[in-house]
Amino acid sequence: MQAVWARPEEPAKQILFIPPFPSKIPHKTMATAPAITAYTPTFNEAAQIRAVLESVKWADEIILVDSFSTDGTVEIAKEYGARIVSEKFCGFGKLRNLALAASANDWMVSIDADERCTPEFAAEVRQTLAAPKCAAYFVPRLNHFLGRPIHFCGMYPDYRQPQVFDRRRFKYHDHLVHEGFVCDGPRGYFTHPIVQHPFPTLAVVLAKNERYTTLMAQRYFNEGRRAGLGNLAFSPAAAFVKKYFLQQGFREGTHGFLLAGFHALYTFVKYAKLWELQRR
What we know:
Elements: E1 36-42, H1 49-55, E2 61-66, H2 73-79, E3 83-86, H3 92-102, E4 107-110, E5 115-116, H4 119-129, E6 136-138, E7 141-145, E8 148-149, E9 164-166, E10 170-172, E11 181-183, E12 187-189, E13 194-199, H5 202-222, H6 229-246, H7 254-278
Parallel strand pairs: 1-2, 1-4, 2-3, 6-12, 7-13
Antiparallel strand pairs: 4-9, 5-13, 6-9, 7-8, 10-11
Helix pairs in contact: 5-7, 6-7
């Protein structure tokens, strides 16, 4: 409150008190977001798990679906109060569904070990879920390649699958890799991106290429797909053209050329491994 005081040598004047706000104006009640669970699937992610958990400390619950890490990943996660669900690797789809089943809350945020939430994204989650209009929301991802943010090559906004959703109306397919989903309700889109660091070095690029081509070839084989000479000869070239020209990878300079080249390599190795499987 504010008061007007007279100087000591003068007769005291009347003191006027002014309330900071009119007392009869009612306060408006703001809607609050429901409790939220953030989950992460992991295997030997000690080098980066602390960074992702720091970025989701705002969540009401954190779940780690861990495939028996041996490098201290689980011990680090426990420092953040994360609940641990231990399960051997059985495909990313099944692991993600285990997180949904274990969650204490209905609204969930999916965040991988190489992804980072931003404060802007966290605020948008709270604001949106205070009055949600959709059952699931796609989230833009700003990918980094060899330390540089990439805006072309199909890597931004890179809507992979909904990463904010109501688990009562959402489920993943039981795919080994690049899992699909089913959603019983409308889907929306967030504005603020999360940040992803999937390829910090060429060694990581090649290691992921080896793992994911194996998983994808096995998935194709299980689905009855087969590879022929046409896949081996033309699909890698088409993959390069898509990344470098159609998705404007050339605008990223050398980084874009490397990305397009590695995508072509991934495509070639994937079909070569599928061809090998079908010959057994």
